[in-house]
Design brief:
23-stranded mixed beta sheet, 9 helices, signal, SusC/RagA family TonB-linked outer membrane protein, transmembrane beta strand, Plug_dom_sf
Length: about 1000
């Protein structure tokens, strides 16, 4: 797709123009009589017995986001966000009230306009969204049954309004740049000295009878030829470092060692949409056309979207209403390698630019003059890495490969929904809703033949997914009011059908240059396809009752049958019950001027989770294609458990909601307890059983999340000229495995066992550095190693320690789960000025910083080094936490251990804006109803324990060389006519 729009100004601006008849005040306090979206309907906020958070259009429409899930970052208590990558078009990962599963997905269910949405929300234009509603407890989610264990996010798109007409134009442009800055690393001069030191110290251990002078001379002689391979100074290799000092006469022959600058820079984001909303007393229409184009700050990363939406409703008869939604979307995404999936890949821009030693240039240079070399066309010649150390990726060049390779995904989405409402009786309504979604994605990659994985031959791949899902539900709603009694009964049925076709092809041996279709490649290496299907059928009912909106009762039940499980265990019921008491409606509080609203509510229920990676969990599976020449072959790939079924999450919730001092102070205090029963887990089997992966997926344990949520909002100042509102959310929770049918399960940095949480770190116990000789020390595992007289075991400060990482004691060292996290925001209005800011924060929790660990290598061999290396041990008696650089002890110094854990606390300025609104009388003369100028920004500032660290990138406390988030600065104008 190549859609180009003319930009009216060359300045980088964020421009928003709205032609409207009225504008909603986004600072208006949410009223208890406000109608909000709930499962299969709407309900007054004051009568709800469940827990939910709603984000309306006013908080979405002026933010430069490509994926609507980004709007939930900092939206409310209990919502934990792992910030999305900087890859344009990507969203965030969300946890609602903790992590309740291990083997299956923890992502919430997405509902768009009343039906499940298994697609990617980057196919929705944020400007088309009326509201986002997060359902958190069983009372809110149980009507979605087996898909609701992780909470529910309900997306409602805009629709026309009766007897009105509104024309809206939004157009914005912003600057996209890198947000999280790189770790501090040493420069070229120091790097040679550090590598020399590690070699000399290692030589002293391997050749203990050699003199110090001889060891120094050996390190000087072998520094380049035996290790780093490249000397960028104008002195002979053996004279570059002498006795641990860089030759003072040495001068750089060239100084272009920055690998980041050519591929990491500044991008531009632009977003344009035009919409019409209106209608008469019978029919309404909302239609929009949108275009988004974002160039990421990494070269060749981009996201482009063109969408057309039509939402129409018509009251054909008093008893009959019909409506439809149609959204057509085309997206094109240029992909930079995401480190979350390709952490150590050679073509990962972050792994390369972060880890490349500061003595290697991306370009070729004249060996005598040091001048950069060019080809006959005047194009720069790139270095192929033949003269680099072993940790500097010899034979690769990320800049050259990024410019020559290509990775692009084009998607075609059609989302359609039609409904009909029949008023059978004054109190009885039948609504049927049918939705069909189609998503076709085609990923094309090209690997060049000049350097990299396809050196000399070239390669191309095509990956295609054709996904279709169909949902049809029928819902009867009966509502009867009699005096103060209000009863609503809902009953419904729903079918869901999902199909996905997959096709993958890979060819090598390119014929012609600059042509990347399959016909230009000779060798068919791989061709594979599959069809995956799953279905679900559901029956459900809900009862709502309230008396004078003071005493509230609610109950629901849903029966689900899923094709993911065997017939005997396919059906299961999920239910909830909730109650509320609006205390402020009691006589003893009717005239209370301090308390305006006070509600106590509670709920209990059970919901489920069947979001396995496979649609055939109960079946034993085989893979085809393992052929021996012309002889066909198959391979056992999965052993199924015919009894595997849903995880069930039993949730209880109690909360107190209040509004005080003429509604100037508002808040909620809430406690929840959520127990996952039948925890799905890779049950370990004996190695000699011949089972792939040595595990079978089964329901084998229980897991509990419980915690508190606090929401507070206050109008500190509120008068005619000034208003200052402050809001804050906070959440704390504990996670614990309460039962497990096997003693323990170790995976990476975690060990799962009864009594511990999912994210508890299980690591070697780092003790520190021996002041006597700079050796790395670990706490000794005395249970396994009883002979304490060996040379690698010592006593330091009365503690038995070891220099051998293989004898270290493993133990738990904290958890990735924070002690407390949330958001606080402020909005200040003074006459025509408005200032707002929103901060995310986290206290406590640990993060295992492998990126930092890789930069603290005790033996530099071409990889970059962190400036903390300067604190290394060098002198007997020195107190430090960085071991001596030593090629002989490098395995222990670099070993995975508690040394690499760091406090995950942080404070993030998520977004901020300042704006000025002109007085209507000034702009009315030019036909404008309102005019506002503003400046806004996303991801503006962060304070964490270490520069370069992303403490909010994952939930499990690990990091990767990923495309870190973008900072977006926008300048703008908003006007109405």
């Amino acid at each position: 797709m190549n859609v180009k729009l003319k930009i009216l100004s060359t300045a980088v601006v964020f421009f928003t123009a709205q032609v409207v008849t009225a504008q909603k005040d986004s600072t208006k306090t949410k009223d208890i009589d406000e109608v909000v979206v709930v499962a299969y309907g709407k309900q007054k906020r004051g009568t709800i017995t469940g827990s939910n958070v709603q984000v309306d259009a006013a908080k979405i429409e002026n933010r430069p986001i490509s994926n609507v899930l980004q709007a939930l970052d900092g939206a409310g208590a209990g919502i934990q966000i792992a910030a999305g990558t900087g890859q344009p078009g990507e969203g965030s990962s969300i946890r609602i009230r903790g992590t309740g599963s291990y083997l299956v997905s923890n992502e919430p269910l997405l509902i768009v306009d009343g039906v499940p949405f298994p697609g990617n929300l980057n196919s929705l234009n944020p400007n088309d969204i009326e509201s986002l509603t997060v359902l958190k407890d069983a009372s809110s989610t149980a009507l979605y049954g087996s898909s609701a264990a992780n909470g529910v996010i309900m997306v409602t798109t805009k629709r026309g309004k009766k007897n009105s007409s509104r024309f809206t134009l939004n157009s914005n442009t912003g600057i996209v740049s890198r947000f999280v800055q790189e770790y501090d690393r040493v420069g070229a001069a120091d790097y040679y000295v550090l590598a020399w030191e590690a070699m000399r110290n290692g030589r002293r251990i391997t050749n203990p009878n050699e003199t110090l002078a001889a060891s120094n001379a050996w390190a000087s002689t072998n520094l380049i030829s035996g290790n780093l391979k490249t000397n960028v100074y104008d002195v002979p290799n053996a004279q570059l470092v002498i006795d641990g000092i860089l030759n003072p006469t040495a001068k750089l022959r060239y100084n272009d060692f920055d690998w980041a600058a050519p591929i990491i820079g500044v991008g531009i984001r632009q977003d344009h949409s035009i919409s019409f909303s209106g209608g008469n007393d019978k029919s309404t229409l909302f239609s929009s056309l949108g275009y988004t184009n974002e160039k990421g700050y990494i070269v060749k990363s981009s996201f482009e979207r063109l969408n057309l939406r039509i939402n129409a409703d018509s009251q054909v008869k008093d008893w009959f209403k019909i409506g439809t939604s149609l959204n057509g979307v085309i997206t094109s995404q240029g992909l930079a390698v995401n480190g979350a999936d390709n952490n150590s890949a050679y073509i990962n821009p972050y792994a390369w630019t972060r880890g490349m030693g500061p003595i290697y240039s991306p370009y070729q240079h004249d060996p005598v003059t040091g001048e950069r070399l060019y080809d006959v066309n005047g194009d720069v010649l790139y270095d192929d890495g033949s003269l680099r150390g072993v940790d500097a990726a010899a034979g690769r060049n990320i800049i050259w490969e990024t410019l020559l390779n290509d990775d692009r995904t084009n998607s075609y989405n059609l989302q359609s929904n039609v409904y009909a409402e029949f008023k059978l009786l004054p109190e009885l309504m039948l609504r049927t809703n049918a939705a069909y979604n189609f998503r076709g994605t085609l990923n094309k990659t090209y690997g060049n033949r000049l350097i990299g994985d396809a050196l000399g031959i070239g390669s191309a791949s095509r990956t295609m997914y054709l996904t279709r899902d169909f949902t049809w539900n029928q819902v009867l709603t009966y509502n009867k009011k009699l005096g103060g009694h209000d009863v609503t009964v809902l009953a419904g049925h729903e079918n869901f059908d999902y199909k996905q076709d997959y096709l993958y092809g890979y060819k090598r041996n390119q014929v012609l240059d600059n042509f990347y279709e399959f016909g230009n490649f000779v060798d068919n290496n791989t061709l594979n396809s599959y069809l995956r299907e799953r279905t679900k059928e559901s029956w459900f009912t809900r009862l709502n009752y309230n008396y004078n909106e003071k005493y509230l009762l609610e109950g629901s039940i849903r029966w689900d049958g899923s094709s993911r499980f065997a017939t005997d265990v396919r059906w299961q019921s999920f239910w909830s019950a909730g109650a509320g008491w609006v205390i402020s409606k009691e006589n003893f509080l009717q005239d209370n001027k301090f308390i305006n609203f006070l509600k106590l509510r509670g709920s209990y229920g059970e919901v489920g989770n069947d979001a396995l990676d496979t649609n055939y969990a109960y079946q034993t599976l085989f893979s085809l294609g393992y052929n021996n020449g012309t002889e066909p072959g198959i391979l056992l790939t999965n052993v199924g458990d015919p009894l595997i079924t849903w995880e069930t999450k039993a949730q209880s919730d109690i909360a107190l909601e209040f509004e005080l001092l003429n509604k100037r102070v508002r808040g909620t205090v809430e406690y929840y307890n959520s127990e996952t029963k039948g925890l799905l887990f890779p049950f370990q089997t004996p190695v000699n059983a011949g089972i792939p992966g040595n595990s079978i997926d089964r329901n084998v344990g229980n897991l509990v999340n419980k915690g508190y949520e606090i929401t507070l909002s206050a109008d500190i100042i509120k008068n005619q000229n000034m208003k200052w509102t402050v809001s804050a959310y906070g959440t704390t929770y504990k996670n614990e495995i309460t039962s497990l049918s096997q003693d323990e399960f170790i995976s990476g940095t975690k060990k799962l066992m009864k009594g511990k949480d999912l994210y508890a770190f299980w690591l070697r116990s780092w003790y520190g550095v021996d002041p006597a000789d700079g050796a790395p020390l670990f706490v000794l595992d005395q249970d396994l190693f009883t002979d304490t007289t060996t040379a690698d075991i010592r006593t330091v400060n009365g503690v038995l320690v070891t220099t051998n990482q293989n004898k270290a004691k493993y133990a738990y060292h904290g958890s990735a789960i924070p002690d407390f996290f949330g958001n606080f925001s402020t909005t200040f209005n003074f006459k025509n000025w408005e200032l707002s800011a929103s901060f995310n924060y986290q206290f406590g929790g640990k993060i295992y910083d492998t990126n930092y660990a890789n930069l603290m290598d005790a033996y530099p061999q071409g990889g970059a080094a962190h400036t903390d290396i300067y604190n290394r041990w060098t002198t007997p008696g020195q107190i430090t936490d960085v071991p001596a650089l030593n090629s002989s002890t490098v395995a222990a110094s670099n070993a995975a251990s508690s040394r690499w854990l760091v406090d995950a606390s942080y404070l993030l300025l998520r977004n901020a804006s300042i704006g000025y609104s002109f007085n209507p009388g000034i702009v009315k003369s030019v036909g404008v109803s309102s005019l506002k100028l503003f400046v806004s920004g996303e991801n503006l500032w962060v304070n964490s324990k270490r520069k370069g660290l992303e403490p909010y990138s994952t939930f499990n406390g690990t990091v990767s060389n990923r495309y870190s988030p973008s900072r977006i600065i926008t300048f703008g104008l908003s006007t109405t006519f």
